[in-house]
Amino acid sequence: MLAISTTWNFNPHSDITETLSQIKEVGFDAIEIGYNFTSERLEELISLLDRMRIKVVSMHNFCPLPPEIRLNRFATDYYRLSSTNEAERRKAVDYTKKTIDAACLISCQVVIIHAGTVELKRDFVGTLLKLYNKGKFGSKEYRKAKERLLAARQAKKIVYLESATRSLEEVLSYAYSAGVKIGLETRYYPNEIPDIEEIGYLLSLFKDKGLFYWHDIGHAEVSERLGITAHDDYLMRFADCMLGMHFHDLKGIDDHMAPFSGDFDFSKITPYLREGLIRVIEAHPPATPQQIRESIKRLQP
Q: What is the CATH number of the domain that holds 294?
């Protein structure tokens, strides 16, 4: 089944009936509920699903959003499952459980999570991205910046990975009891958890407890373009544990474009599109309805 994330056309000021009507008009009967719904807006959306005959195939943590706004963090990162601050880690676990509760309410069997971040005092990541965008990939300056970033991440990762593991153990136990699967998503920023080795580690611990791999095409491709991990390595290593994919395109390292509107070669992922894999278009504005319709034509099995 091909679905679309509500991140395409929903924002806090959207009319939810219009949001869902537009999704139906471009050709979808299935959605992923994104991470930008308050409790009130989520209740409103849920109340319309049966009448509009829309199925929810996945939900993205946090959903609903925590009521407090943390201006220095993206919504999916308000509280980190990897935090070494126990109060923050506790909130991340509790709000993830609320997402699982919401999934149960609408018979959604998949919740997608971000596992956290290795917190670095210096902005090694920002430096690397700026160099890439200036066309300096492959230069001596770029190589040194990447080496500094990866060395700093390696030096600090253990405590954050341990916190993420503790959090996942509790989240997975809760989700398993509720009949919900957890999809561990490929991340965009190189200091985020999990990198490719950490995906393998976490799956080795929890693959029998309801943890699966969720492949994000844009994020994996950014990792390759930054010279960190080849896109194919994610697919080859975790194909057997892969629950679903986020489909979006990119130019350079700017992602979340409508599929086939950027410069990604989608033939890379064709061998891995097995039957039963959940496929979600995760395009963001300003992707147009026509671009989404074209994506459907090219992505349908």
A: 3.20.20.150
